[in-house]
Amino acid sequence: MLLIACPYCGTRPELEFVYGGQAHLARPSDPAAADAQAWADFLYSRDNTRGVHAERWRHTHGCGRFFNALRDTGTDHFLATYRVGEPAPGLPQAPGATP
Amino acid sequence: MTGNHRAASGGRVDRSRALRFSFDGRSYSGLQGDTLASALLANGVHLLGRSFKYHRPRGILSAGAEEPSALVTLRRDAARCTPNVRATQIELYDGLQAYSQNRWPSLAFDVGAVNDLLSPLFPAGFYYKTFMWPRRAWRALYEPYIRAAAGLGRAPELPDPDRYAQRYAHCDVLVVGAGPGGIAAAQAAADSGARVILCDEQAQPGGSLLSEPAEAPNPAMGESAGAWLRRCVDSLRRNSRVTLLPRTTAFGYFAHNLVALNERLTEHLADPASGRARERCWQVRAREVVLATGAIERPLVFPGNDRPGIMLASAARSYLNRYAVIAGTRAVLITACDEAYRVALELHQAGVAIAMIGDVRAQADGAWPQAARRAGLPVQTQTSVLGTHGRRRINAVRLARLDAQRRVLGRVQTHACDLLLMSGGFTPSVHLQSQSRGRLAWDDTVQSFIPAQAAERVRSVGACRGVFCAAAARADGAAAGAAAARDAGFAGQAVAAAALPERDGAMAGYAGALPLPPGSSDSKAFVDWQNDVTTRDLALATREGFVSIEHIKRYTTTGMATDQGKTSNLNALGFVARQLDKAIAEVGLTSFRMPYTPVSFGSFAGFARGELFDPVRTTPIHDWAAAAGAVFEDVGQWKRARYFPRGGEHMHAAVARECRAVRSACGIFDASTLGKIEVVGPDALRFMNLMYANAWNTLAVGRCRYGVLLREDGFVLDDGVVARTAEERFHATTTTGGAARVLALMEDYLQTEWPQLRVWLTSTSEQWSVIALQGPESRRVLQGLVEGIDLSGAALPHMSMARGRICGVPALLFRVSFTGELGFEVNVPADFGHMVWEAIHQAGAPYGITAYGTEAMHVLRAEKGYIIVGQETDGTVTADDVGLGWAIGRNKPDFVGKRSLSRPALSAPDRKQLVGLATADPQLLLEEGTQIMPAAGEASSQRPIGHVTSSYASPTLDRSIALALIAGGRARIGHTLTAASVQGAVPVKVTSPVFYDPEGARLHG
What we know:
The complex is a heterodimer. Chain A is mainly beta. Chain A contains 1 helix and 6 strands. Chain A has one helix spanning 36-44; strands at 3-6, 10-13, 18-22, 52-58, 66-72, 78-83. In chain A, a hairpin with a 5-residue loop joins β5 and β6. Chain B contains 23 helices and 48 strands. In chain B, the strands form 12 sheets. In chain B, strands 8, 9, 10, 11, 12, 13 and 26 form a 7-stranded mixed beta sheet that branches. Chain B is elongated, with a radius of gyration of 38 Å. The model of chain B has no long low-confidence stretch (mean pLDDT 94). Classes of the chains: A mainly beta, B alpha+beta.
């Protein structure tokens, strides 16, 4: 059972959290202008990384807040957790990126 | 029968305490400290079971957890009956009852043994190529036969009556295994100040030391094994920072150093106190873990290596030194490892005749082989085994010396014996390292896989990493224990910087099948005892083209029995490597999975059984409904009243009565389970417009509207009436089952998409009790109870709300209807729900008020064509499909799901659309899910164009009604289609989904 460091509450067991899918997926700011491929990618395309994966977690049975995490999908080690809006540690914040 | 196979002295059994036990109904005597296996051997019993596939007589192969053959059923009573228990791990108690398995009519004479004669018909994977014809024979003949023949023991048919406990624990250092390495690690870690948990699957700590002659001086250790053990264990017991857990198996290694342990509390007791937990499951979160799990001896693979009386050399040693049991009178040993010579010497000293020690290797010049020769024991190198004799007990073995081309040197020798001991070397137990996702690497020195890079904070010590000598394991453990404590933050004393013990090749041994002379039969050379897998099966797999070890394992089932291949994996690997002409390291190893040894289901369940399995949610009205005789149904975790039978009514009659009462007078319904979300803040309107499909700008304060919530992919997620209770406040309702899901979706968008919006969301599902009043008399019923609310149609029109008091309690009153009748929903703080319900029910008596349940609610809404999310929708249905296109605010620039609605697929004309269906026979009720075919006639030759989503007997219309989703449904209204029902092809007419009061006149009373 994973131990996850909620940026607000500290390290808590996996049972208190719900996985939130891949992180930093930008919902097009003007969906009406998104072409079919871009919209389909937003809805359905996800990375299948073996290695460091940026993903979201929600502390459902705790503070209820979403946050981001870098987890190695091969070893399940969490490299970092960081708040919504903060850039991924070690990765530069791309302009216009979604939190 | 007293055992005459008990040594006169020695052993760790208590000779002053005799125990009586029975096996297959026959009574025997044993000693306190015996296992069932040692006690049976003491009584000269070697036949314990019949093998899985071939029903060959089987005995005891080992003295530990790796036992593949001696599986018995342990019985305390009809409910406490455990099959497939390893006799080598059962602690004997007075009155123990054990039974052999997989045999009929008896162990000695088993009809199933015919499988052994027919064995050429049952090679690996035979079931993939048989049991196919004729098709009808599968149900009547093959399946019942296979089910009856499958498995070994029989599972009990009564529920497990025992209690099981669970515990969570944190520690600094968890040490798995209390052998020399583990005890030393625990000692070192505790000395540094760390909190230590030390667990071991056996009743006594000591591990491999328990099989040493207890008081024999041990130069390498400086004192006898027994003395060292006593001293260390005593010290650990007195240390308050150490928790000693005997009879506790670490069976699973999970992420981030969570290790699961199973502690057996009462299995060894003759008469466990009632109410005492039988087992305890520990979930231990350790900062650091030290694995001291030891090594398991490998058998050798040769024809006929499975007879009773053939066992591992170290097992015979355990039985002698630990249990004072002499397993035979005349022994032959076949070995590829020096350890077996030590066993031969000790057996020789105990009076066993050693007929021959055959060594597979070309040379045997180590210390123990030399000592054996000096003692006059016959030793022969370059030896292989050609076969064995003896059906229910071995009586002879055929050996031969082979040259490099496997030709016989000299003659084939036949040695009479009643005990054949094998030693193929020792395989480090790396199961937990593997489960922890740590890497394993092939080591040429020990000729086995040993732990390499760790994925968690874990270290392996002693035999499980190839350091076999007990003294070296001690040093290894001490160093690791100190290092683990240091990494956990306890500086402690520096351990003397001795060089870390090196891995020891002396126990390396042999993997694969022993060589056989050309032309010599290789039949029945077992690799996996428990699943009856032979070398011929493995050869078949490679011949049929399987090259991956994962495929070979699954095709032959080697390593897939309850022992998870503890005695077979490496031999299988060695054999396959030779077949494929690859190095073992190249072929690779399959994964180890938890549990290390079987764990009772009860231990996993703990207290979460029966009433405690799942939380039950009840509404404030629940007790009233129960007292009124309601029959409840489960909606998620909620109990909802389904119907209120009177005077022995069946459901059908109750529902009909309830529906009629609603449409003619007044019904009262508990709607408290529906989700309620308060959306409040300066940006509440903006947020509602972004989340829901509806255009909320036109919703005035004090008005309600039916809201539709889509997912981003455009499909309907949930629905519910939304009321604007203030300029910046919305009271949104959801379905009962969707409440948490909807709030989670809203929070997701609010926190991560639009965090700049000033709006707050609060679940108020459990804060409001909701009482629905529906029917032409509903206004009159409420009239006398409300204060400060004008109930007239002008002041409170349909789809509006008012605040006031009811029965003196603050209330939010909605004028809404899910039945199509004049209706209201009374919202009061939940604590007052019961009181207000009773008051309304009483006030409604003169008007014929009737409590109705979810079943009547379903029928009434279906008569009006109102959908239920999850019934008419399934995640692939759009709002337009179910006739809710009017609810969508198409002029809004953006809302969740809007972009997807413009996908061509979501507006295709042949999409399934909501319609009504009327069966030609008005009394015929279609099953929900029935497929609809395009035309009348033979249903089976056509493709379905839709299905029935809801189906009820309508008391209002006095006939059956159904709702369905049908391709291009709206254009088919008036047509007749065919329903492929269980009664055959049924003609159905497509109608509007609104069966009753299509103008909606009754809504206005």
